[in-house]
Amino acid sequence: MEQIGQFRYTKFATTLPDLVDGRDSKRHRIVICGGGPVGMVTALGLARHGIASTIVEADDSVCVGSRAACVSRRSLEIIEQLGVLKPFLDKALPWTGGRSYYRTKEVFQFEMPHDANQKLPPMVNLQQYYIEQFLLDEIGKYAGLIEVRWASRVSKLDRRADGCTITVVNVLGEYQMEADWLIATDGGQSFVRNALDLKLKGIAYEGKYVIADIEMQSDAPAERRAWFDPPSNPGSTMLMHRQPDNVWRIDYQVPDNVDPEEAIREENVLPIVEKHLAMLGERQPWKPVWLSIYRAGAMTLDSYWHGRVLFAGNAAHVVPIFGVRGLNSGIDDAYNLAWKLAFVVKGLAPQELLATYSEERVQAFHENISYATKSTEFMAPPSRGYQLMREAALSLAEKHPVLCSLLNPRQTSPIVYQDSHLNTPADPREDFAGGPAPGAVLLECPIRLASAPDAPAYLTDLLSEGFTILDFSTDGSMHAGVAAALEQLGSDGIPVQVCIATRTPDARTDVRATHCALDHTGNLFDLYDGEPGTVYLVRPDGHIAGRWRNVGAEALQTAVYRALAKI
Prior knowledge:
Blueprint: E1 3-4, E2 7-8, E3 19-20, E4 23-24, E5 28-33, H1 37-48, E6 53-56, E7 70-72, H2 73-81, H3 85-91, E8 93-95, E9 97-102, E10 105-111, E11 123-125, H4 128-139, E12 146-149, E13 153-160, E14 163-170, E15 173-184, H5 191-195, E16 201-216, E17 224-228, E18 237-243, E19 247-254, H6 260-263, H7 266-280, E20 286-300, E21 305-306, E22 309-311, E23 317-318, H8 326-345, H9 352-379, H10 384-397, E24 446-449, E25 452-458, E26 467-472, H11 480-491, E27 496-502, E28 515-518, H12 523-527, E29 535-538, E30 544-548, H13 553-563
Parallel strand pairs: 5-6, 5-15, 6-12, 9-17, 15-22, 26-27, 27-28
Antiparallel strand pairs: 1-2, 3-4, 7-11, 8-11, 9-10, 13-14, 14-15, 16-19, 16-20, 17-18, 18-19, 20-23, 21-22, 24-25, 24-28, 26-29, 29-30
Helix pairs in contact: 1-4, 1-8, 8-9, 11-13
């Protein structure tokens, strides 16, 4: 395919590295098997810490079709930290809610959480080929740190205690690569997972959905719309999302007894799409641009860490798309893994830190499917009993709003690692009435920077590749325990910055602080239940590692060491 809408594909050349006796002449620190969004985010996350990686990708271009097209606010926050936010927001279509219909009657409307404190929309629609291209454009800025080897596939894997040897095949030949670490982001049919004889465990649903991307001019808004038993396709469920370039994505359920190859033939798909558009009163000309089919699953590996091999994205787990948790969960995997592996590679943390990557992200999988499974069973009933329950709920939902919770797609939300071993347990003597607890993601809030008081800013703008200490102060001074910990951690080579939060407009900021955040709205102190002396410790991935009312240097240093799995 050469073009979809305004997007033009680039075919990348296949290459061979310098070889010595059939082997790559250099040993690689990290090889990433799979160059989709999760692999690219992992590479960019590592590069942010100065760690080099090589991506081995089987295709010769970015993906075809919309695929994973919904990007959550949490994923956008990660994308911003990687430096890629602007092209995403310039192209993507933001949305905040959606509607559900039983036949043609609207029975449910939902809005995702959104308030004046937020910098980013709760969700945007953006085709995966744009997502990959924007990430790839950023990768191009990291010459010497990130290399992509296109149209090359891994055909063999030998794992050792100190690394891996992989065999790579492309049209130019076959060669071996030596790597200290291998990260598998090679999708649901992962070669690496199969090579290690690892099995996904969970549920594979029978229900199948066709995806039809079409080009069509329409004034309909960007929102998630779902129809149950619509006249256009009786007995089915249909979803519709607007995407950039006048591309619309239509997903619809097909009967269990229909052959997948038959289901995606144009002569079978186009009449269903035509009937649905007619039902909506869409009379503009349209054309198909991509057809595919998928089957929902909720499966995971027991562990994502296997010595010098790590798994992320669909190579590690398969999450039902309902609630848009697939790509977003993979981006979260990649960002969690990147900072931890970077600290291990630099010698700043032991390998045990990688165990917490697996623990936290396996927990995230189970939390995701606790919601996604309910949505999946409602969207694609696995049995006649579920189907009868759905029909009853839909027919009664309009008059009985309590049943609308069954129709709620429960869109993805940030995971809280409340049981993480990296958290410093709260001191019961310190009474927090609110604010994010250890394990939660940093809450967004508008601020003003003392260094640029007239420029709009947000709290997440202050995060860096290291740890961040948020120190609530009356006058802009740094508390003694924070100052002493900052000095000691710096001498240990651990990247840490201090950000002072104050309500005093003319506060004189301690020169040792990287930033001074002015709480000009009054929301920051309230959101964090902050008072002078309150301190939050934030991990490199934006999760809270600990919080205190008054913290001493030793306690704060210990919390950082705990967050690095050193104790």
